[in-house]
Amino acid sequence: MQGKGSVSAPFRTATRAVVTGLTVCALTAAPAVMRAGATERTTAGDPATEAVAEWSATAVDTVETDAKRPVPETFLWHAFVSTTVYNAVVGIRGGYAPYRWDGRAPRSASVPAAVATAAHHVLLEYFPASRSRLDTAYAASLAEVPRGRDKDEGVAFGARAAAHTIATRKDDGRGARVDLGSAAPRPGVWRPTPPAHEGFTTAWMARTKPLMLTAPHQFRPGAPPSLTSARYTKDFAELKAIGRKTGSARTPEQTDTAMFFAGNLHFQEALRDTAARRGLGVAEQARLLAGVNSAMADAIVTAWDSKLHYRTWRPITAIREAASDGNPATAPEPAWEPLIDTPAHPDYLSGHATVGGALTRSLTMLLGTSRIDLRVRSVVTGTTRTFADADEYNRGVVNARVWEGIHTRTADTVGNRTGQRLAAWALTRYFRPVR
After folding, report:
1. Does residue 31 have a cis peptide bond before it, meaning omega lies within 30 degrees of 0?
2. Where are the domains of the chain?
3. What global pTM score does this model have?
4. Does CATH place domain 9-173+224-426 in 3.40.50.2300?
5. Which SUPFAM superfamilies match (predicted)?
6. How far apart are CA 92 and CA 86, in angstroms?
């Protein structure tokens, strides 16, 4: 919201198909799809697929339970683990191109041993405080693999895959200091919000090396609407009426949806469930986890790049300080409060909506259908919802962030579309079948 005037052309382009962009045409550029039964299928008790699922769950326990790493950071760590596991799997089984690597192992190498070693070594490198949990899980995994040359080959190859990830992610921008300046913010510019008035948290994510994109700004959309534009005025009026904590025009169903999306979702659990119900073989399962996690990680980096670049104020600030925005159609309400507390970073783009777009587009491309049948559990409400198709999920996450009172609809719709676009670009280049 820097300055005034009409909405930029890039903004118009980004918003033209904001939520329903998952079309058949978009899928023509997708890599070969991964349908249940297309190649190998899981069977009950398959050690390889069980190893992938078990170490995905161990990664959640390590990153989120032990280390208590905050969203959005968690997306990076899960991408590191799942791409390393993917490399360990396809380096033995083949079928798909390794992720930014050319490592190969004998076909005789044990996949479960390679998976356990790859995940264990990466997690231990970044989360040494969880050594007891990780070493216990690792010993249990290796105990299931018969002794012999195959096991030794798997362990050695998993260690190579982990070492490759650790080396390539060195000095990637994680935790880097970002100078936000000390000048008093102008109207439209972000500043810390109630109740905690925290500074811009995890600003370093805007400068972090993406997983698949060439740079954090590669998919940065055009500028948000100016403070005096019709679009800004419409966003303002909607938020003021429906996003408020008390006296809102929300229906009970809308409030339920808002609270469902109010915090993080159990994405790793949902991806494991998707792979299991579709009967995916181990290479397809590893590819699903790696592809979706990498797309979501790059979506977070992209959203944070936009947040840092544009630094637009949050709805609570915009509504309380509307007298300063130069727009006669926006009336201030000094005591206005959103349904949920506002996160400590700028409005545009919405991280949750951008991740949602990347999630649904990557699932659509990898599964070969927009009927994603995604079952996901909310961290905040503890309830599980099933999203039959990609559009249903996208509508839900876009609406929820408005109904919560923490994002403009523009920040949500542009973010969602940006997530879809970056995932479509990335997954035509990575995790592709090898013929």
Report:
1. no
2. 9-173+224-426
3. 0.90
4. no
5. Acid phosphatase/Vanadium-dependent haloperoxidase
6. 10
